[in-house]
Amino acid sequence: MVIAFTGDPFLAREELLREAQLRGLTRFTEPTPEALAEALSPGLFGEAGAMMDLREVGEGEWKAIKPLLEQVAEGVTVLLLDPKPTSSRAAFYRTRERRDFPTPKGKDLVRHLENRAKRLGLRLPAGIVQYLASLEGDLEALERELEKLALLTPPLTLEKVERVVALRPPVTGFDLVRAVLEGDAQKVFRHLKRLKEEGEEPLRLLGAFAWQFALLARAWMLLKENPRPTEGDLARLEAHPYAAKRAMELARSLSGNALKASLEALIAGERRAKEGKDPWLALERAVHTLLNTLPRG
Description:
Layout: E1 2-7, H1 9-23, H2 33-39, E2 49-53, H3 59-70, E3 77-81, H4 87-93, E4 97-101, H5 107-119, H6 126-133, H7 139-149, H8 158-164, H9 173-181, H10 185-197, H11 202-225, H12 231-235, H13 241-252, H14 256-274, H15 279-293
Parallel strand pairs: 1-3, 1-4, 2-3
């Protein structure tokens, strides 16, 4: 039985190792015909089987081991770590078991980080999780950062996390949101230009705006209920205390019409982007509306 693990390198490797433990496989086999043939032969100290990492395997090496893989007996397990298979290997997997683990994006990435944090005994405020999800790091790098945060003395604050996290892209979606909230048009369009040059996805940036303005909307409605919110009220916003207080400050200076216009601009921008219109133009239009709607400072 040949099982290929594809998709995100971190998730694929983690799942392969979990499967290997269940099947009694303890070490990777060199991706050579000789090593594979030896692993597939029953030995004195265990049943036949192998697990191989194909990430650095070229087409020539693949052609050398493929005949052996085609002849693997039903009762023998071979686990293949192959996050991004070549077309020939992908064709081979069509008639074998393939387990694919896509890299989580957007809300799925946030949920992934929340779950990984819980495994480490971390209770992270929503603002910190959103901040981590905005960083340009792969899942393994984010996992190392979570392990680092688990060593810090609680409570964790966004400021404390920002000081220790090593993943600091020059410009992020949240930098852009912050510049819009500050009303700094020059900085906003400088950020937009740079993010576009770096290949950032406009829908991802619209998602960052959506999160921030959903927070502003909750803060505005909370102020309608209680113009003098308590700490308990702030906790209802499900955001980092600093982010919650900042949202309250902005919400106080926003009229209902201004907030409605901002939310409508973001909804329209996302709709245009998803309908196949120019997504960057849709984002720029939304940003222009926000700059002319929000208070300065």
